[in-house]
Amino acid sequence: MGIMARFSRSAMIEVLGQPYVRTAMAKGLSWRGVVWKHALPNAAVPIVTLIGFMLGSLIAGAAVVESIFSWPGIGRLIVTSVANRDLAVVQTILLVIAASMIIANFLVDLTYGLLDPRLRAKTAAH
Question: Which parts of the chain span the membrane according to its record (predicted)?
Fold first, then answer.
């Protein structure tokens, strides 16, 4: 969460320094309206990217945590299967992990389209 908070803070500071934020303030919008309608969606794009990358490390870290604390789960199952040379289970687990990463990256791409209308316009034009 520390990485997420630091990244969010730096993204918001960068976005709040942009000219369109000053223009929105000059138009008379409230600070809350400027932050929620103009700054936050633009700052959320790199944050969503970071969430997508962190999901991969979360899945990889599950194997370590489940093995250390003897918790039942997919991480411990893959470690046990590798130790027992059960290749069918290892391949199945890796397929599930790969599919979950592909789905997560697809959801990140869909979220980009929701957050940034310019990306929707480029996609619709092609």
Answer: 47-69, 89-112
Rounded CA separation 111/90 (Å): 31
Please, are residues 102 and 59 in contact by the beta-carbon 8 Å criterion? Answer: no
Displacement of CA 116 from its chain's centroid (Å): 15
Per-residue model confidence as pLDDT tens digits over 34-92 = 999 888 888 888 899 888 888 877 877 887 888 888 889 888 888 899 999 999 999 99
Q: What is the pTM of this model?
A: 0.71
Q: 10 — phi, psi (to 5°)?
A: -65, -35
Cα 16 from Cα 13, distance rounded (Å): 5
pLDDT digits 0-9 by tens, 51-65? 888 887 787 788 788
**With contact defined as beta carbons under 8 Å apart, do 93 and 78 qualify?**
yes
- Structure tokens that stand for 91 in this block: 């391949």
Rg of the chain in Å (alpha carbons): 21
